[in-house]
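WARN retry 2 of 3 for item q-0093 after timeout on previous attempt; input resubmitted unchanged.
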Amino acid sequence: MRRRAGLVLLSFAVFFAAMAPTLRWYAFPRLAKIPAGQYQEMVLEAKPATLLKYDTMKAEQVDKVTIVQTLKGNVEESRRIERDAGRDVVVWDTLSHVVGPDGAMVSQIPERYIFDAHTQQPVHATGETVDGDPVRREGIEFKWPFLTEKRDYEYFDAQTRTSAPIHYKGTRTFRGLEVYYFEQTIPWTKVPYPKKMPLPGIDATRLEQQTGTTRWYTTKRMFWVEPVTGAPVNGEEIHREELRGGTLLGGRDKVTAFAGHVRMREDYLDHTVDLVRSQRRLVLLMTSYLPWGFLSLGTGLAALSLWLEARARRGAVEGPPRRPAVSGARSSAGSAPPP
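OK item q-0093 returned
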């Protein structure tokens, strides 16, 4: 019985020991993915800020500029692209809606971001756009890969429509979470006008051609990324835009269109941190808790199996236990009766 129990335990030990690397290196890369139907809203603010008033074409100091970013997963487009790509694909339709202190729209820039659901690498397909213009992304945008590494990544900048390195700057603690801090600086670059701007009767797509006034942009981009999920828990930008030259400025060389330190609003920071904490536990379950638990369980079962086998062999060598002799037994012939 001991040997049979030992063989059963050894079988379970082999099973759990094999499951540990299988779960971590085979199952996790295939099961962990971004849901296709995700919806998210984020509010960022620059307080105070410099903002151009287009009716006077003068820059003014304002109390606040608000940027509302919405992200919506397009499930139908994901399925359509998946049929051709042969892999799990996520399509995000995003919108950056900028409003001034009076609630009036300053600009709107829509994007369609198509990427691999598991690795977050871009998938090039029809519909990959920024503000209606076709683009071909290289590197990441919005989200880092699961199990983010301590290294630089290529990050796509929607204003310039180009990718540049975003640099790992060290490990920090943000609201109780260990995070990786990244920075990217985009130098002054000429960029296109947003197609939606508060310029009634003026086609923004032809504004540079008609007036000769160009739009320039620079930013210092900062992200605090939770490395297990690859999700940014905080993001900030020191952002500046200028209009330069041409007839639109009335002879001036340049004017500030927008300048400010953009930060996530406090209530959205709290919500993001809570969401990332919950998702982090799910990822750790597949990458750490279960694999190490299975390995420990397999090791324990193997040790118990060997102990039972050793006891069974020791019993076989010693042989069966001897029965004790009965004292005072009479001889089979018995004793003769007295005469």
